[in-house]
Design brief:
mainly beta, Metal Binding Protein, Guanine Nucleotide Exchange Factor, Chain A, three-stranded antiparallel beta sheet, 2 helices, 11 strands
């Protein structure tokens, strides 16, 4: 487990995530692809996440079960957070590169468009599987 520190593009928001693993995931849901122009590449950070520069964070209530945060100054995506339990998925690009990271899972695999494919062997979850894993809705 690794403590990670990162920041948005302009530096107006700094993030500290305690005891993250090394697994990187991708979300292929339509909302994430619209949000960032492609799959959301993230690291699961759980609930032990803190921010400096919170005045620069805007939150978008994106669904019944989750919300998304971004920097109001530069637009950098900061997190995807489950409302029920506060679990954060944070874009891996906010943190420094780490050669111990590996691509481990893909979610909303049932919504992945056919025009791209990753060659890595990963654990794959459908959208309903993911929602059931992290919520009690």
């Amino acid at each position: 487990m690794t403590d990670r520190q990162g920041h948005c593009l302009c530096g107006g928001v700094r993030i500290t995530a305690a005891a993250t693993g090394n697994e990187v995931g991708a979300c292929h849901c339509k909302m994430c692809r619209r949000w960032g122009g492609g799959p959301f590449m993230e690291i699961e950070c759980g609930t032990r996440v803190s921010f400096q520069g919170e005045d620069n964070i805007a939150i978008y209530d994106s669904s019944d079960w989750a919300e998304r945060g971004f920097c109001k100054r530069c637009g950098t995506h900061l997190f995807y957070r489950f409302k029920e339990n506060g679990h954060h998925g944070v874009p891996i690009g906010l943190f420094e590169d780490d050669d111990k990271l590996f691509f481990a899972h893909q979610v909303f695999i049932d919504e992945k468009p056919s025009f791209y494919a990753f060659s890595n062997e990963t654990r794959d979850l459908t959208g309903p599987d993911l929602i059931a894993k992290y919520t009690q809705l």
